[in-house]
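Incident review: delayed structure delivery

Summary: a single-chain prediction request sat in the queue longer than the usual turnaround. Root cause was a stuck worker, restarted by the on-call engineer. No data loss occurred. The affected request and its eventual output are reproduced below so the record is complete for anyone auditing the incident later.

Affected input:
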Amino acid sequence: MIVMKFGGTSVANFEAITRAIFIVGGRLDKKPVVVVSALSKVTDLLYRISDAAASGNVGEVKTLMGELRSRHVNLASDLLEQSPALKENAVARVNSICDSLEELVNAVCAVGELSDRNKAIIISNGELLSSTIICFVMNAKGIRTNFIDARKMMITSNEYLKGEPVVDEIVKRVPEVVAEAYKGMDAVITQGFIGSNAAGEQTVLGRGGSDYSASLIGMAIDAERIEIWTDVDGVRSADPRAVENTKYLEKISFEEAAEMAHFGAKVLHPLTIEPAVKKNIPIYVLNSMNPSGKGTAILRNELIEDGVKSVSFKENIRVINIFSMKMINTSGFLRRVFEIFSESRVSVDLISTSEANISVTVDASEKIDKVVEQLSEFADVIVDDDKSQVSVIGKNIVRLNGMLKKTFAPLKRTNVYMISQGASFVNISFVVDREELKEVVRDLHYHLFEVEEELEQF
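Output delivered after worker restart:
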């Protein structure tokens, strides 16, 4: 079996869905489990619906719900034009999902209060709608396909909007549900991003969680491979939107991919790698708009050569500097500091320490008021905003001769506020002013990937 995950841009419209189904049709001998995201921009629309409902804006809710319904009804009608019976059933099912959603958002609108539980239900409807439509269309194309409700097998914690997968329960349920659904079928389709807690209440894994769902399913069924179908030709040496002349990466290690995802690369969800690593399942990042392309293979470490693979970045971060003389020769100080971050569920990226100072970076979206208040009870705390984090990622890069010189040579005129080196020798990260980020990333990529190539041409 293989898992094939199609992101929002890969199921965005008539043409994209037609391509995706063609791709699945070429993999039927591998017994694919197809995982789909919501149509492109639909999850954003559902967040807008939930916000409008929470504020009691009846008019906006009606307008946005009309937009949601018409997009999916029209898409189902267009895709199934040649199959009248399936078209009728698909449109009825889409309208039924929208009717239930509309009933909920109208109730929220009347109360003027939106619980996390109801918000999770609202924003999960994109995946339910897309998978419903695509299931009907696959059957219309002659691919016998069964629909799996992910909530029956993707069990999470009780956090409605950021459910933590209960891996043991997922590993137990997924093979049984998939095997039952596959009887007499060519393929099965399910949703990414959504699940339920032990009580059967709706949860979601958080934005971008469809990749994570696919990887968890792949782990549970011991998949031969996991394919992440997106709109780019695999992983590149930097974000093409920020850097020209990026290099295509034919293969990278699990560790490199995890670092890239965590430190800003947009191709994969940061948690996607972990389940695949547990079963050593290769992940392929492929382009649904170019199905014949090789894409990027993510493989175990020993199959990957040493060297720099990527310059990644996080554009908007904060640096929190914590200074206290009580740190000197005192045990337990660091534990106390990080307990405060943990209790407030604030995720720390980079850490740098000296005798009396700890510096950490957090995403600018994190709510840190409580953290700063608690830290200030026993330390001086300074928060620096408008910073960016740049990471050079590759296998054994710290051991490569001249790598540190190459990394920091382009930064002669740049203020560097913090440097952190990963213990695994997979990344070197540093912090710069946000206003200088684009120039830093371009210069760094040029020195690491383009200078030698230019010299070879002479």
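Verification: The longest strand covers residues 307-323.
Action items: add queue-age alerting; document worker restart procedure.
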